[in-house]
Amino acid sequence: MAGTIQSLIWTFPSAVTTTFPRRKTRLFCRSLRFNPPRRSISTLIRSCAPSDEIYGSDVANGLNWTKPLMNFASNNFLPLALTSGVAFGLANPTLGCLADKYHLSKFSPFGIFVISGLTLRSDAIGAAAKAWPVGLFGLCSILLFTPYFSRLVMLIPLQPQEFVTGLAIFTCMPTTLSSGVALTQLAGGNTAIALAMTVVSNMLGILIIPFSISKFIADGVGVCVPTAQLLRSLFLTLLVPLILGKVLRESVRGLADFVDHNRKLFSKINAVLLSLVPWMQVSGSRSLLLMVKPAAFIAAIGMGMLLHLILLAFNTLAIRSLSAVSGGRKSIFAEKENALAALLVASQKTLPVMVSVVEKLGGAFGESGLLILPCVAAHLTQIVFDSFLVNLWLRRDLSSNNAKVA
Questions:
Q1: pLDDT tens, 162-186?
Q2: CATH number of 139's domain
Q3: Are 208 and 140 within 8 A, CB to CB?
Q4: Does 160 sit behind a cis peptide bond, omega within 30 degrees of 0 on the bond before it?
Q5: Enclosing domain of residue 380
Q6: Residue 22 located in a structural domain
């Protein structure tokens, strides 16, 4: 009976003629609406409403395509950040030039080394002290062995000649100020030994660079390098932020635990800070890029890439040889963390120090912009290539761990 009354209520015609008085009709309709139990109305509404489960599954299916994309972006965050910085610099150099004008290029390495100090554990410093032979090899490779390859670079016939000379000067430089440490941290290498090699090689490099350029490139011509200025710059951009980060880690309560539990987040922040460097470099060099013939610039990029591959091969062979003669698998060179740090840091060359040196040469080797331009490309390609290399190592380790668990 209740269902019949309910159906009458919902299907009652909108225009009805009745003989009842108006007031009685209201009472009759009100009584009809009041009598059915609330449960029947709610049941009817529920029967007409779509299923929540079906709706939720439709939404989930619609978002499924984003999961592989987000996983790819997370697994390849560093190379994507670097290539995005290069693309933005080429597409719209205004923002990059403005950022460089307000010294954002100095903020980037400062932030990277603050994060390096925050993530530097005390036991890692002890591990770096134990791995001093690895650090010593890295310093010798950076400052003494790899500059010899500049003679091979000088034999390459390429015009303009400044491209060849610039890459030869680039070969004599110390290791990168920030990217080698950042990549070592991402790869799970010995960050402490990477930091030690970076700081010491750049400090000693300022003293050794004039002799390397004079011996390998200038044929005995003396070169004036701004030693005091470079030392001050490296002290402010390397040592100060590194010590600041370490002091904050040890003095602020709970900060060390927070950093250790969010290492992936700090690695991504490091990657973003690192991508600011090529963004500003490409933005500032875009006008020169447009002036150079594409074939010559592509050849210079190929030379820079080949040089980096040669340095990687040389250091890989040297590390394996030292490991074989010093104990095999038990050697300190055979430990994965130490080998990664030595390989990445010793195979890279820094651009900011090279730019400072070229600016003080006063055009002795040619147009400064043309000397620097191929080195910008070489600097970017080594970072991008090593970021893909690190990503490959991480994916291989993940697959190996999954296979062991299975």
A1: 888 889 989 999 898 778 888 888 8
A2: 1.20.1530.20
A3: no
A4: yes
A5: 80-394
A6: no
